[in-house]
Every structure is written in structure tokens, then in C-alpha cells.
Design brief:
The complex is a heterodimer of chains A (386) and B (389). By secondary structure, chain A is α+β, with helices and mostly antiparallel strands. Helices cover 52% and strands 17% of the residues of chain A. Chain A folds into two domains: 188 residues, no CATH class; 167 residues, no CATH class. In chain A, strands 1, 2, 3, 4, 5, 6, 7, 8, 9 and 10 form a ten-stranded mixed beta sheet that branches. In chain A, a hairpin with a 2-residue loop joins β6 and β7. Chain A is elongated, with a radius of gyration of 30 Å. The longest helix of chain B is centred in the N-terminal third of the chain and has 34 residues. Chain B is elongated. A nine-stranded mixed beta sheet of chain B has the order 6-7-5-8-4-3-10-1-11, with helices on both faces. In chain B, strands 2-9 form a two-stranded antiparallel ribbon. Chain B has 14 helices and eleven strands. Chain B is of the alpha+beta class. Helix content of chain B is 52%, strand content 17%. The chains are: A alpha+beta (386), B alpha+beta (389). Chains A and B meet through α2, β2, α7 and β11 of A and α2, α9 and α10 of B.
């Protein structure tokens, strides 16, 4: 008998007897399902947050901010420097002939009851603010008018904080009506309120900007653009490609969630592996006679060992698939907030595949010792034990 | 106690298998206790936040913060018993990625932070020393600081009037931790730091802590303060310390909301594993139990034997798991990877231990129900021969 046919038969015998071992088999599946389900649920935070932050990024966009800070959240750019920055080479031109860039500044707004300070931000944007954001669209109401005290709210902020068109937001010099709700490709700016830079800054007595978002003629224009800015003695700013900038800020936020997820997954995985070793040992024990009989009629030890291993892997995969499904049903696309970013938890197909692969590896780890024991079972003694 | 040898021999009839189950139960309970510890840290932050304290911050992220002159106006308000100002000295220690800060405060904090574990002589020392700072235990662990050490912080150009690139603080005392500062804090002298700043940036604070005589008046005093400064150059935003702590813990992807889910999944896994292991063990020993019943042992005694076996395994696992979680939680902060420094410290306490043990007993009981039920229904005569009926 060839190795392959021995292997197929050994597996068949194993699976036929599986019905008698439903309980223990179920426990292996549940264990692995818990490991994969919990890991996916925790990683969905990281993946959702990354998706939201990075979805606003384009490689032909750049962010300019003061060189002594690491982001555009401060207020270090004077009005005078904005004019210089927008004169840099490589910036695309808007239909009205102006440079396609938006000088912006972000400030805190008192959020609704029950949310911590700093969770709702108001971004004051320039006239080209919408044009430098791909996918920007008003989904209800209208755009704010420049020079008037009006705001528009992002989709995420609208649902998280309950800010609807027609409501008012209290700012230093009065109540500002929300006149529209906008979408922007599901990016992080949807977590914020937007207003006209001139109106917001004069109301809040802010005189400088945090950063400038510009659209370049093409991605290759970035190097010259940055070189020009950095070398300009009248400025102390730096520029970063928007994709790089968002990736950097996102990884700063998500690193700790994913590290935590892996630590939790490790601890659960250790438990699940010990559990499956124990269960597969008892499986081998329960199948002693069956295995010894196969050996006695001429089966090699290897196909028997492989069949034990395959059984562990199959049971774990079934559990992992169920765990992924539960995690997906419970968490996928659930809205969450982290700091000032509203996002939706996200479980991708890739993550599920990774979960299944990890489950298979853990199962192989847990199955290898019992499989060896099955292969090395002394035939005569095993048969005599009945 | 009479049956202890019986239980013990049953547990260690297959030592390898028992050890494997014990390891799995230990790691499950380790995870559970750690998660419970994180959760209790979050609760401590809320419990410790006082409802007779207010934080007065700059309303809309003003780049210059609030003027120190506001302190006198706040003090004169009805119902306010004390006002302290604070401002940070931010920078990094040795290398840029070691960012850190000193929380500098003025004398008003003696009243506004009266609940902090700082003695009168330590307050005196802080405000008379200039460069001195009081360091909470966790911050001291994080930076490896001892009394008398000097801790230099490199700052951005323009932070100091004399142009010096760094600020050196001397550790006066190590003080106990308070829950609000989950990573500990270093407390410095505002007046000293202020005098070293360039003239144009002096006289600013990040905010004030206000002590209020009657907690019931906290919300109304907060709105009075905001109302009073609404039309000034620096509008304020006042929140009660308690409300702020609650919002911070509850809103957002707080660790606290994750912990229960993860902990429960861990326990769920253990429940199935223990149940399976007990039923396997009982199945193997059917003739043994049948003999006991034939000798006149009641169902209740047999039930107790099975329960005790399960409970010993689970409780031992729970105890070891909690100890493991405690060890994990007590890793000094300077050995924790940087990615994880923002994870709050887990508080693994006797309470956590109690919870773990209680749940261990519960799991043992639930896991033993089916095997016990099958033992009760077995026919003794058949079972002695190794069959169930």
C-alpha cells in the first residue's frame, strides 16, 4: 500500500471514530475559537483605526508644519508664513488660480455630556479646505458660508456626539449653527467640526495656524517642494507626504493596541495549546486498540501520526472559523472612539486568514507530542491491554 | 479530609494530563486576573477623583494657556476654598524618544491637592528648594530615580531665558502613588520654573485646580467660573474632577470596556477544558466509583469527591494564575516596552484573588454537573464490570 493510500485510510478511521469523541473534540474547537475570536476582536481596533486615519491620505498631498513639533495640532505658523508656503514650487493650482492648499488650525470644543475634554475638535479650514480632501461631500444641509459664524459636522461626529444639522455649538462669542453634515472618504476629519478659518480664528482669538495641507501637481513634485521649504530662511517648517504623515501618526496610536492584543492572544494561546495537548493525549489513549490494530496489519507509524496531527488541525480550524464569525458578527463595523478619532472596528478577510493560519500552527504545536506517542505505541502491549 | 488521599491519587493518576490541564487553567486565570486588575485600576481612578475639586482649563486650546492672575479672582469666588495653578515643563530625558515632563505647581496646591500623600515638611521643602521635585513611586520606578538624584530634562530652544538647553531637577523625596496618575508624576515648583522662562512666556499656567467647600455646589461653581471669564481674552472650561475621570475612563476605547470581554472568553475556555477533563477522569474511574457506591457510600459523598477534585484543580489554577498576573503587573515600568507604557498599571489585589477563587469554584461546579449526573444514574452492578449500564 502506498503512503498516500495508507494516509487516507488512517485519516478515515480517525474521522469515523470522531463521533465517539464529540465532547473532547468540541473542547479543542472552543478553545481555539476563543483565542482567534478574542485576538480578532482586539486587532479590529487597530485595523479600524488605521483604516480611518490612512484613508484620508494621498501621496500627491503634503502636510507642512513647524519644524519644532511633530504634527499640525499646534499653533506655530504665522499668517505671514502661510503666504510664503503657498508660493512654494510644485503646488497644484485651483480653478480660480490660487494655490491648492489650506492653512488650518485645530482647537477643542466642549463635547456632549459624558465625553472627555479633547474628544471633539473644531478644524478651521481655508477656502480650498474641501478641495484638498478627496471624497469630500456634503451629505445633508449645505456648506458653511465664508465669513459667517457657521459650522459643518463630520458624519462620525454627528452620530457619536449626536450633533445634527440645525443644532448649535457654543463657542467663545456665541452659538454657532451647524448648517451641514459632510463625508470625506471615511477619514479622520469626519470626527471633527469644520468652520471657516477666518471666522473661527477671529472668534477664538487665535492668530496662527497649526499646519498647511497642500495638493501637489504630482507625487514626484514632493522632494523639490520640501527642499524649497526647508531651505527657505524665512520659514522654520518641515513637510511630510500626507500618506507618510498619517501612517506615522496612526502607528503611534495603534502600536499599543496591537501589542496588547498580541499579549492577550499569547496568554490565551498558551492555555489552548496545553488544553489540546491534554485532549489529544487522551484521544490517543482512547484509540489505543484502533491504532495498534492498524499497526498490526502493516500500517507505517508515520501516516498514523499525521492523521492525529491533521485531526487536531482540522478541529482547531473549525473552532477558529467559528470564533472569527462570532467576532465578525459582534464587532465588525461597530463605531468606536479613541481620543479624538471616531472610527469603525474592522475585521478584514486577511485578518481572518491570518487567524486561521495561526490556529493551524498552534494546533500543529499541540498535536505533535500526542502524534509522536501514537506513532511509537508498542503494538503487542497495546493489543494485550484490551 | 478523610477522602483526601482518594482525591489526591485520582488527581495524580495521570500526572502529565493533570499538569497540562493545570497549566491551561493557570494561563486562563492569569489572563482573567490581569484583565480584572486593569479594570480595577480604571475604577480606582474614578473612585479617587473627588467631586469637590474642579479643573479650570483654557476653554479653546489657547496657545498661551491662562494668566496666573486669574488665581486671585478664582479664590475670591463664593464657595471656593483653595486654588492652585499648574504648568508643565516638557522635554525629554537623555534621548528624544524618552519624552517626559515635570508637573510644576504653586503654593495654592497645598489646599487644592490636600489629599495627596505629601507631608507639611515635604511641601515646605518643595516650595523652598527651587530645583527640587517630589517624585511618585511609579515615576521613580520608570526612570530609576532615588532621593538626591538629579534628573535633567532637555527642552526646546526658547524655553529658558538663559538659553540653556536643559532643565535639571533634583529628587527631594519619593512619595506614594495616587490613582489619578496611573504612571506616577514628578511634581516641581512653579515659581522657580517660571523665573527661568523668557519674560514673554512668564505668568501663564495650563490650568487651575479649585477646591470647593460643598461637593453639591461643584457644577454650579464650574458654570459660574466659565460664565465669569466667557468674555475675557481667555475663556475657561471648568469640569469637576470626578466627571472628567468618569468620562475619560468610560468614553473611548477604554481598556476597562475591553477587559470584561477578554476575561470572559478566557474563563469560557477554561470551563470547557475543566468540564472535559473531569468527565474523562470520571469515565476512567467508573468501576472505582461503583465500588464505593456498592460499599454504601451515598451519592452525596461521591458528588463531593468529584467536586473536590475539580475544585482543587481550578482553585490551584486560579491561585497560580493570579500570582502570575500579579508578577506581570509588578514588572517595573522601566522594563516595560515603550509601546505599552500607556497601558494603565493592573492592580492585582486580594480582591482580584477572591474573584478568581470564587469563579474557580463556580467553574468546578458547572464543569462537574454532567459527570456527577452520570455517576448518579449508573447501575452499580454493571459499572463494577466497567460498563455504565
Amino acid at each position: 500500500m502506498t503512503f498516500l493510500s495508507q494516509q487516507l485510510l488512517a485519516c478515515r478511521v480517525g474521522f469515523l471514530s470522531l463521533r465517539q469523541r464529540l465532547g473532547p473534540s468540541f473542547v479543542i474547537a472552543v478553545g481555539m475559537g476563543c483565542v482567534v475570536g478574542v485576538s480578532l476582536a482586539m486587532l479590529s481596533l487597530t485595523s479600524g483605526l488605521t483604516r480611518t486615519i490612512e484613508s484620508g491620505g494621498r501621496s500627491d498631498h503634503a502636510i507642512v508644519y513647524p519644524s519644532d513639533v511633530t504634527d499640525d495640532n499646534g499653533m506655530g505658523l504665522t499668517r505671514a508664513s502661510i503666504g510664503v508656503i503657498l508660493n512654494a514650487p510644485g503646488i497644484a493650482v485651483a480653478p480660480d488660480g490660487t494655490a491648492l492648499g489650506s492653512a488650518e488650525v485645530v482647537s477643542n470644543v466642549h463635547p456632549a455630556q459624558g465625553f472627555s475634554e479633547g474628544s471633539l475638535l473644531l478644524r478651521a479650514i481655508g477656502p480650498n479646505g474641501p478641495a484638498v480632501r478627496p471624497g469630500f461631500a456634503i451629505v445633508s444641509g449645505r456648506m458653511f458660508h465664508r465669513g459667517i459664524q457657521e459650522l459643518i459636522v463630520g458624519r462620525g461626529a454627528a452620530s457619536e456626539f449626536g450633533l445634527k444639522v440645525g443644532m448649535n455649538v457654543i463657542l467663545p462669542n456665541g452659538e454657532w449653527p451647524i448648517v451641514g453634515e459632510f463625508a470625506a472618504n471615511g477619514s479622520a476629519v469626519e470626527s471633527q467640526l469644520l468652520g471657516d478659518a477666518d471666522s473661527v480664528m477671529s472668534a477664538m482669538r487665535i492668530s496662527s495656524f497649526g499646519g498647511v495641507l497642500v495638493s501637489l501637481k504630482n507625487p514626484a513634485a514632493f522632494d523639490d517642494f520640501k527642499r524649497w521649504l526647508v531651505a527657505n530662511p524665512s520659514l522654520s517648517v518641515t513637510a511630510e507626504r500626507q500618506t507618510d504623515y498619517l501612517q506615522r501618526t496612526a502607528s503611534f496610536l495603534t502600536r499599543y493596541f496591537s501589542t496588547l492584543a498580541y499579549i492577550v492572544a499569547c496568554m490565551m494561546a498558551i492555555g489552548a495549546v496545553f488544553g489540546s495537548v491534554q485532549i489529544m493525549y487522551s484521544t490517543v489513549e482512547a484509540r489505543t486498540v484502533e491504532i495498534a490494530t492498524l499497526r498490526a496489519i502493516g500500517y507505517d507509524p508515520l501516516p498514523i501520526a499525521v492523521s492525529i496531527l491533521l485531526e487536531t488541525i482540522l478541529l482547531s480550524l473549525i473552532g477558529a472559523l467559528a470564533g472569527s464569525l462570532v467576532a465578525w458578527l459582534l464587532f465588525n463595523e461597530q463605531q468606536a472612539i479613541n481620543g479624538d478619532t471616531i472610527f469603525r472596528l474592522h475585521i478584514s478577510g486577511q485578518m481572518v486568514v491570518f487567524g486561521l493560519f495561526a490556529a493551524a500552527c498552534l494546533a500543529a504545536l499541540g498535536g505533535v507530542l500526542p502524534a509522536l506517542r501514537a506513532a511509537r505505541l508498542p503494538v503487542v502491549e497495546a493489543l494485550r491491554s484490551t | 479530609m478523610r477522602y483526601f488521599p482518594l482525591i489526591w491519587s485520582a488527581l495524580f493518576r495521570r500526572p502529565a494530563q493533570t499538569w497540562l490541564v493545570l497549566m491551561a487553567v493557570t494561563s486562563g486565570f492569569g489572563l482573567f486576573s490581569f484583565m480584572l486588575g486593569l479594570n480595577s485600576t480604571a475604577n480606582q481612578v474614578i473612585d479617587a477623583a473627588r467631586d469637590d475639586r474642579l479643573y479650570v482649563n483654557s476653554g479653546y486650546d489657547s496657545p498661551t494657556g491662562l494668566p496666573i492672575a486669574m488665581e486671585q479672582q478664582l479664590k475670591s469666588m463664593d464657595g471656593v476654598t483653595g486654588v492652585g495653578a499648574f504648568r508643565w515643563v516638557y522635554g525629554y530625558h537623555q534621548i528624544p524618544r524618552n519624552s517626559t515632563g515635570v508637573f510644576t505647581i504653586d503654593e495654592g496646591m497645598r489646599i487644592a491637592m490636600a489629599e495627596y500623600p505629601i507631608s507639611a515638611s515635604q511641601w515646605d521643602e518643595l516650595f523652598s528648594s527651587g530645583t527640587g521635585m517630589l517624585v511618585m513611586q511609579k515615576a521613580a520606578d520608570r526612570w530609576g530615580l532615588h532621593k538626591g538624584d538629579v534628573f535633567p530634562i532637555s527642552v526646546k530652544p526658547g524655553t529658558r531665558e538663559d538659553g540653556a538647553p536643559s532643565w535639571a531637577f533634583e529628587v527631594l523625596e519619593i512619595i506614594p502613588d495616587v490613582p489619578q496618575w496611573t504612571g506616577g508624576v514628578m511634581i516641581g515648583n512653579y515659581r522657580y520654573a517660571e523665573n527661568a522662562r523668557p519674560l514673554e512666556s512668564r505668568g501663564q499656567v495650563v490650568g487651575f485646580t479649585v477646591a470647593v467647600s460643598d461637593p453639591r455646589r461643584t457644577p454650579s461653581i464650574a458654570s459660574q467660573i466659565d460664565h465669569r471669564f466667557a468674555n475675557s481674552g481667555t475663556p475657561t472650561l471648568s469640569v469637576s474632577s470626578k466627571a472628567n475621570a468618569e468620562a475619560q475612563v468610560r468614553s473611548g476605547v477604554a481598556i476597562a470596556s475591553l477587559t470584561w470581554g477578554v476575561g470572559t472568553a478566557g474563563l469560557f475556555m477554561i470551563l470547557f477544558l475543566t468540564g472535559n477533563s473531569i468527565s474523562q477522569s470520571v469515565r476512567r474511574r467508573i468501576p472505582e466509583f461503583a465500588t464505593l457506591k456498592a460499599m454504601g457510600y451515598t451519592d452525596w459523598v461521591v458528588t463531593k469527591l468529584v467536586l473536590a477534585e475539580a475544585a482543587i484543580l481550578c482553585c490551584l489554577g486560579a491561585a497560580l494564575g493570579t500570582v502570575l498576573a500579579g508578577l506581570l503587573a509588578s514588572v517595573p515600568r522601566r522594563h516595560i516596552p515603550r509601546n505599552l507604557l500607556s497601558v494603565p498599571h493592573a492592580t492585582v489585589s486580594l480582591g482580584t484573588f477572591g474573584w478568581a477563587l470564587g469563579l474557580a469554584v463556580l467553574i468546578a461546579v458547572i464543569g462537574s454537573v454532567l459527570p456527577i449526573f452520570s455517576l448518579m444514574r449508573m447501575q452499580v452492578s454493571a459499572a463494577i464490570g466497567g460498563r455504565t449500564r
